[in-house]
Input
Amino acid sequence: MKRILTIVSLLLLTSLGSAQSVLDKGLNADRQGLVELAEGYYRQAVDTNATARLHLGLLLERQEHFAEAAQWLAKSDTTALSMAHLAVCHGEQRHWTDARSAAEKAVELAAEGDSTLRASAMATLGLTHCMERNYTNALTWVNRALEQDPTSARALNVKGIIHYNRGQDQEATQAFRQALQADPQNVDAHFNLGAMYCYRNSYELAITTLKKGLKVERSSIKLIYCLGWAYLLKGDKEGAIECLEEVIMRDSSYVGAYNRLGDIYFSRAEYNRAIAYYRTATRIDPKGSEAYRLLGRTYAEQGEMGKALRNYQKATELNKGDAETYCRLAELYEKQKQPKKVRSYYIKAAKLGHIGAQKWCTERAIAY
Output
């Protein structure tokens, strides 16, 4: 019996040693920029080595495969490094509750001297508050991040997002450009500038900005996606489809690409095809509210009010700050002659700052 235990122990030690050797090969390949080789080594070691899971998560995050990156980071040891990067991945998927939880843990675990990690986690906390329209808290966290690291491109990007959401375009542009000065390779700054121009209907400027970013990082899925969105808004649907299909080819789990392809077929009144894309998005990301909102819109357009209501309600369950969907629910209940629900949903939207809902309440002397 004693001999059997000894043999098992030796086999276990050999296995662990082998995993460490494979991990070392992965780290060496990673340092040389041999991404595919590094990924292969990391995947060989993940079953028995938590550090391999961490580095695989970090590598996948750099490749913008945020969903899978989050899975591996969550399975690695709980450190400030893993939590800070997990928070980023959750934020990229718009999972704000998870992002905040991971960022808070990262701040708690990070040593005082680890300014880069603390700044990243604090910036993510600022972003989660920004998404709740709590701009005072958002700016407080971003300023704390910049105190930790004045050149944090992530913090400067979040600062720009906050300014943009407050309607301060000039300040937002300045912050995004400061992020690029801090890190000329920063994909997020190019993406945020491009997205801002899209929202402001400056599509040519958005396309120019995004193409400039793609010269810096040709493989950026985010930039290709945003370029496709810019083409879509401009009315160039074929250009949009080309970009969005490239996104899916590079990352079949990129939810936004399915939603935008759905939008294209919705605009062509090809509703069943649009629904198929939106349904794919909900299967990939059950926590994402956007696809459910878009399904609600599509079913409403088809006159299927029961399905429209269910999907709109699911969207608001997942995102209680979605003022636009509350308005869509109010409109549907108005058609069904349910005035109490109409009033309730318009008040919810008005409280969230929806101008149309606020006007509706004001015209009827309803406090919100």
Observations:
- Residues 5-16 have pLDDT under 50 and may be disordered.
- The domain at 17-78 is CATH 1.25.40.10 (Serine Threonine Protein Phosphatase 5, Tetratricopeptide repeat).
- The radius of gyration is 23 Å.
- The chain has 21 helices and no strands.
